Amino acid sequence: MKNEVSRKSITEADDETLKIIAERSPDPVLIHDGERVLYANPKALEYVSAEELMKRKLVEFIHPDYRAIAVERMTKVMKGESVEPYEELFVLPDGREVWLETNPTPITFRGKRAVLLILRDVTARRRTEERYRDFFENSLDIIAVTDLKGNFVEVNRAFEEVFGYSRDEVRGRNFAEVLKLSKDVAEEIFRSYNKAFRERKNVYGLLFKVRRKDGKEIIVEGNVRLLWEGSKVKGFVGNFRDVTDRVRLEERLRESQERYRSIFNYSPLAIIVFNDRAEIVDWNKKAEDIFGWKKEEALGKNIIELLVPEHLRGEIQLIAERILEGEVYTHSINENLTKDGRVITCEWHNTIYRDAKGRIYGLSIVQDITDKIKMERKLKESEERYRSVFTHAPVLIAILDKDGRFVEANPAMVKSIGENPVGKELSEIFPKDVAERRLNHLKKALEEGELVEFEDERGGKYFINFYLPLELEGEKHCLVIAQDITELRKLNKLLREMVEVNEAIVRIGEREELVKKIEEILSDYSAKIRDSGQGECLEIRYGDKTYGYLCVENVDEEMKPLLKALTDDLAFAFKSMEDEERREELLKQLVENIRTIAYLVDRIRNPLAAIRAFTELFVDDEEVSKKIIQQIERIVDIVEKLDVSWANSEKIARMEKEIYDLSKIEKKFKKD
Fold first, then answer.
1. Burial code of 345-367, b = ≥16 C-beta within 10 A, e = fewer?
2. Number of other residues whose CB lies within 10 A of the CB of residue 31
3. Which of 474, 402, 409 is nearest to 439 (CA)?
4. pLDDT at 6
5. Phi and psi torsions of 482, nearest 5°
6. How confident is the model at residue 619 (pLDDT cuts 50, 70, 90)?
7. At 140, is the secondary structure helix, strand, or coil?
8. Can you tell me the mean pLDDT for 328-334?
9. 335-338: which pairs have CB atoms within 8 A and are 24 or more residues apart?
10. What CATH number was assigned to the domain covering residues 256-374?
């Protein structure tokens, strides 16, 4: 401007009427000449001081993104043209941003052409609209707005992602047509909407099947709210979720519960469930047969007081406490009481489970082994029975004299060696280092009169060996019980590596880093994840898409099913990196695979159980037998690390609604 504008000229108007109206206005009012502010009412000065208005051009208060259009509008108004109100973003001297609706009018002020600018602060409304729009667009729920005829007015991003339609494709089209609803479903939904409209009430709990653009059928669940405009209903707002996986899971759960109940009711073993107060909460038919108490008589009774003789209650109470404190498995054989007062001997396999609310229950599987024990005693007394068991035992059994010469060997031992060793010394059968090592262990057992347990390797195979001194016909001998654990070691190694891979899948969100980690974990198998499959490769495939091939070496047929399950996990993982919604499915798959690993761990323990059984059969001395069994328990250390996978799967399964929160699951794994 040519003439400097004084502060007084800015804050005072020449026209008294204009001054009164402007100064009492609840909205900011400015008069400017296209560049400088000539007048500002008190409300305007609440936003910017008179000094700031004097120092800067009006356009300098407007956000750079809106300056061009603001200048264009000012120019038109200064020429006498009219423009519509427009919302512009202003930046105040203190840095605050406010949205103001600008409504300019050309006037003559102090004899010159000027612009009367009435402003209205719409910041709160704009922010509310932005929050609503942000919520609408980024909601995990499917949100669809329809008119009273059921035609789509607007849909959000979740709708587009789930159904495969863009919003432009569905606007103006009827929901029944777009979602390919069956006639019955369409009529049912129409009735629900119509009832909501008539009764002026929202609709809750709708569940129905729809089809996506690609024809895939899914199940959605949600609520419908009335869309009001003043006192009139103008349409409906539907909030829905894709619950296909949940519904199908519930169906599988019902089927599983039915199977469980069938197994529970008709099991050949007694099954007893008790709560954290040791009160019986379930009791199957076999339990009725064994103990004589009907289910309705047993429910609510203390399991120890009902079934355990008084002199054993302290010992059994400790076992029950261990179970209820979270010990995964306990085993015991003890005397029990029946309703008619008989004392029987039962074998108890005890574990725990948690219900949906996290409450711990004890689960006991019980077998009446009273007759079995009697038979075993007779078996020990019978040489013929002894010989039969010795002959058919799957574990390796032999008797050596003090010089390491074979006196007896069962068929399993003969098969393992490749010839009948009876009458031959260790040095005549095995390589020098193997023979010397075993002879030293034999001498140690005879000299110390103690059980000797060791692992060794022969011809690429690994064995767990128990050398027990005994006396036959006045001479020192050694009973040998051995088991080939080669496959156990291989499977143990692969299962540990699979647990590491599954944990890596949960923790790592980048494909390149995940691939590198998997190849590192499976390096002993020369594992590589390649784009094409050549040689011993398994396809990493999800649906119709292949994400590469897992190529390995040095694996046998037993390992391939596990590796195939691993490729399924990888496919889910790679898919989940593209599609966030698949993370839920990935986590479910991991839970199932970790449970499979736990099942395999139990299978690994079977050979160890066999050694235990044959030890009990062949060794009469209870103290010595106990020592052997204690040594067998040490073998379980080979697979204890695998039990981590079972513990993790239990933790994941207990999370319920939290199971799909990836960050919490990652924290669980990191913590463990």
1. bbbbebebeeeeeeeebbebbbb
2. 21
3. 402
4. 55
5. -135, 160
6. low
7. coil
8. 85
9. 335/308, 335/309, 336/291, 336/307, 336/308, 336/309, 337/291, 337/306, 337/307, 337/308, 337/309, 338/290, 338/291, 338/292
10. 3.30.450.20
* Section 280-296 average pLDDT: 94
Nearby residues of 452 by Cβ (< 8 Å), 6 or more positions away: 441, 442, 444, 445, 466, 467, 468
What residues pair up with 113 in beta bridges, in sequence order? 108
DSSP 102-130: EEEEEEEETTEEEEEEEEEE-HHHHHHHH
| Of the candidates 288, 369, 277, the residue with the CA atom closest to the CA atom of residue 317 | 277
Q: What does the pLDDT average to over 500-504? A: 86
Q: How large is the average pLDDT for residues 323-346?
A: 87
Tokens describing residue 393: 């035992």
Helix, strand, coil % in the chain, rounded to nearest 5: 50, 25, 25
Domain with CATH 3.30.450.20 in the chain: 7-125, 139-242, 256-374, 398-482
Exposed / middle / buried, residue 481 (Cβ in 10 Å: 0-12, 13-18, 19+): buried
- Which of the listed CATH numbers 3.30.300.20, 3.30.2130.30, 3.30.450.20, 3.90.1310.10 matches domain 398-482? 3.30.450.20
Region 7-125: CATH code: 3.30.450.20
What separation in angstroms does the CA of 220 have from each of 24, 179, 210?
Answer: 56, 11, 7
Q: Are 209 and 163 in contact (CB under 8 A)?
A: no
431-450: pLDDT as tens digits = 999 999 999 999 999 999 89
Q: Compute the mean pLDDT over every residue in the chain, rounded to the nearest whole number.
A: 81
Residues facing residue 329 across a β-bridge: 351
Averaged pLDDT, 617-636:
52
pLDDT, average across residues 476-483: 91
Per-residue pLDDT, averaged over 195-205, amounts to: 85
Q: Among 2.40.50.840, 3.30.450.20, 3.40.630.10, 3.30.9.10, name the CATH number for the domain at 139-242.
A: 3.30.450.20
Which pLDDT tens digit goes with each residue over 373-405?
888 877 677 666 667 777 887 889 999 999 999
Of 108, 116, 96, 94, nearest in space to 41 by CA: 116
Report, as an integer, the average pLDDT of 39-64: 90
How is the beta sheet containing 270-274 ordered, strand by strand?
280-283, 270-274, 360-368, 343-354, 329-337
Residue reference for tokens 């993104």: 65
Whole-number pLDDT of residue 385: 62
